[in-house]
Request: fold
Amino acid sequence: MKTIIDILTAKLNDAFKTNNYEGPFGTVNISSRPDLCQFQCNGSFAAAKIYKKAPFVIAEEVVSTLVNDAIFKNIQVEKPGFININISDDYLIAILKEVTSDPHMGITQITDETIVIDYGGANVAKPLHIGHLRTAIIGESLKRIARSTGRTAVGDVHLGDWGLPMGLVIAEMTERYPDWKCFSESFDPNVDKIATLDVNTLNEIYPFASKKSSQNEDFKLKAQNITAKLQNHHPGYYALWQEIIKISKIDMKKSYDRLNVEFDYWYGEYDSEDYIPELIEVLNDNNLLYESNGAMVVDVKEDNDKVDIPPIIIKKSNNANVYATTDLATIIQREKYFHPNGIWYVVDSRQSLHFNQVFRCAKKAGLVPQTTKLIHAANGTINGSDGKPYKTREGGIMQLSTFIDIIIETISKNPNNEINCDNDINKKLAIAAIKFGDLINHRSKDYIFDIDKFTSPEGKTGVYILYMLARMNSIIKKLDEEKVNNAMLYNIYSDTERDIILNVIQLNDVFTKSFNEQAPNYICENLYQLSVLFSKFYHDNHIIKEADIQKQLSWIKLILIIREAILKQLYALGIEAVEAM
RNA sequence: GUUCUAGUAGCUCAGUCGGAUAGAGCGAUAGCCUCCUAAGCUGUAGGUCGGAGGUUCAAUUCCUCUCUAGAACGCCA
Reply:
């Protein structure tokens, strides 16, 4: 479906052409001066340069060929050469009807593309903490945005389950529980049992072992050794590893469930293991792999690099794999399973060099077609008021489950709650507060986390949006069912209603932009604006008491449309709607 | 040291393929509930868009330099 911007741009382009100005001068944008007009075209400035004519004159010519077109309420030239456009109400209503009769509300559906989205990236044996929050929230939203545009989107958690952290945990276990059978060479997985682990111990071991390895060189070596052995399927370590994974995944899933974050696949680095031999083979066949300082590496420099991009390490000098190895092997795996048009990595921006190397290597080795878009949808960090990654008051890292608990508790304490909100609604409000508060910031930027701002019931928040939704639901519930069924847009009665319609018919532009830039904040902004417009509309008009039946039916229809648009955007952000609050 | 990213209202952030008077939330301040949920609505104040040059009819947006902060820079992920 063509958007209003497309239609206007086409009309303006034709008008420029009719007046013998060749070139795409007709681009129409949403007005930067809503007090003057709804849409604007600045093409006469560009044309003026090429045709050496005053922009005002060109604009006048263009406008004169369009002035009688019925879709315009008015189209006129302003000062140096702006073309200001307002659409007639009849045409706005016609477009809106077209948009609302489409189940996707005018959002262009591209059904022949697949995007794999890699988010989560958590390490097993390590509790989820606040550092995992952004990638989970942003990734989930990007997946849903892709789906909203008709694409197939595959979400993969890509667990860190096959690297040094595993070696560290097991190394620590060998010291704490030296008697465990799995540490002996005689361990037989068919006969011997693995000790039962509990998740709290597991969560405590990793930070402990990690700290220990930074202070104790021998321990570090031991962990590296165990990692290498594990990767070679040492029976005891491998069996223990399987147990760790099992326990850890259950715990992780709990946290992700609370955030309403769902993965289609719980693959990890380990699952790419089968593709490592193929990776090595391909790299060798292409003569890319060579030995350097004992490690096996691939050059990924390009001619116009400003700075030396170091080679990518495929095999460490002790023959162990690193994350570049598993990331590349995973690309082979994903290409085999999904033939994606794009793979998006929602990972901390500090890893951009790594992904640059991996992508170059993948393209160089032909692991994916040249057309496959490998994108590092980098996310910023959540910082404290000191501008450094967020820490608790005690200086530790806040666990995700603790974080969610705090937000729920604060929301529950809101005085408006006592009468209205049950526990389940508070949970939804808390998650909405967290997600909206995160997504409203641009994906790639760090932001300063302020617990009061997140939990505030006021202002530009998830709670505000859900509150507006609850009001809409309440009105609809109180109306006669017959009226709701017969609701229909007869007319536009106010500027606010006009603005609401303009907002709704531009949903496609918002979704397209969000998809193209992997940036959910545009949807957040649009959603908030629509909610504000509804609120204004709500205060200006009393829908239930309205006596003019045509007016009332128009207003009811408008509310139904707003609700649908809001639900669509909430879905794309991964925020659950509430019926009431 | 090199490279990258950022610097916009008191605070937290949007915006920018160059366009007309730079936006929002919080905070400050003045109002609005006999009426569909006041977790709401309306108004006011608050800015030389880090600084200096340049390109342009037009620069917060592009280029150069500079200051400040953060990040990355081969065997962790």
